[in-house]
Amino acid sequence: EGRETRLRVVLRVRPLTCTETRRGDQRVVHSLGDGAVHVSAARHDATFGFSAVFDTGASQEAVFEGSGMRQLVELAIDGFSCTAFAFGQTGSGKTYTLMGPLAQSDTQPASPALLGLMQRSFTCLLDQSRSRGSDLALSASYLEIYNEQIRDLLSPGPPCSLPLRWSKTRGFYVENQLSVEFDSLEAIVSLLLQGSQRRRTSAHALNRHSSRSHALLTIHIRSRAVSAHPAPGEGWGGSGLSAGAGACPSKQGTLCFVDLAGSERVKETGSSGELSVEANSINRSLLALGHCISLLAKPRGKRTHIPYRDSKLTRLLARSLGGSGITLMVACISPSSRCLSETLSTLHYASRARRVTTRP
After folding, report:
1. Residues 64, 72 contacting (CB under 8 angstroms)
2. Is 92 marked as a binding-site residue?
3. Is 341 inside any structural domain?
4. For 61-100, how does the pLDDT look when each residue is reduced to its tens digit (9 = 90+)?
5. Nearest Cα to Cα of residue 282 among 13, 94, 99
6. Does 35 reside within a domain?
7. Is 157 annotated for ligand binding?
8. Residue 314 known to bind ligand
9. Which CATH number goes with the domain that contains 25?
């Protein structure tokens, strides 16, 4: 607590698709072990290092355990603000890593082996709350940023734009956002599926289910650990929260999952009309995010003003990236020679992010 903590950045390499294999695409990304990956292609020969690298054969469980996601859940229960986000080119496996197969529904759930970081984290969270014997109150909110408009994915009726506000105590926050309480795995998975089905997606040349918005699912965790006779001064110091007799002060943590829309070249996707407008909006917000990360990667004494206000996305991620949060970034890439340019862009982006520090 209060110490400088680096962002944890892990890399996931998806397998070549059937289309890429039939087309004769070469594999240009190779894992070297110990968190290193090598890119080898004409005029490109580079090695990158990360906290962990998950190669094409890595299971969803291996990604959950090896990424540090379990520890992130435990820290959120302990009162920290925790964020996990996936980024990379469109079609690189971000949504699959976070959620598993898109075809799942309430009536046809995905195979347990294919569940993503989110569902596994929900299970871990509920298991932890039972084993710790603490009184946890859990609620969830789910929103998307589409064409720079913030929309609630859980509120009934057609999605409407919500205002983004700022206060000295809360930082940036979304006004009138619906938060739904839950106490079981079935309830939170149902909320996740309900919101995901309302999210904007489209088909184009690179991805049949391309996310056209950035989505943020936030789990709010409030705990009140009960003890019979706490000693004077015992408890969670400095929280500013009071508790009744025989109880420690409550702790409030958050666990936020961010599924960023994929960076894309409009020429490659064949997008036009509304799809082209969406792509330009996505790319502008990702550019703003990349700019903030580049500035945050500099030593604290050499940092200039961080332009969080350049986009709704960077405003909502301000605390996670440069404030008091604990953050896990999952960079997703394709090993295909045809995607080399976007893959290198993601790898450089992720390498810069490794130098960013926060003070949880």
Report:
1. no
2. yes
3. yes
4. 999 999 999 999 999 999 999 999 999 998 899 989 999 9
5. 94
6. yes
7. no
8. no
9. 3.40.850.10
